[in-house]
Design goal:
The protein has two helices and two strands; from the N terminus they run βαβα. The chain is an alpha+beta fold and about 70 residues long. It has a single domain (about 5-65), classed as Macrophage Migration Inhibitory Factor, CATH 3.30.429. Strands 1-2 form a two-stranded parallel ribbon. The two termini are about 25 Å apart.
Length: about 70
Amino acid sequence: MPHVIVKLWPGKSEQQKTRLANAITQDVMDILGYGEESVSVAMEEVKPQDWAERVYTPDIRNKWDKFAWMD
């Protein structure tokens, strides 16, 4: 814990996804004080034509009140 899920369109390289996962892990460690062994990051590729059904509606529109906004 915590587990971060990144949903993105296909096409990013494994190197890009690894860099992103490492950056997210480091930020979680720095900000929340967890050790690296406690943080997991998953990448889920979603085709553009499936985005509304698989991401926007269930994870964004239906959970708008759960979003943390930047200052």
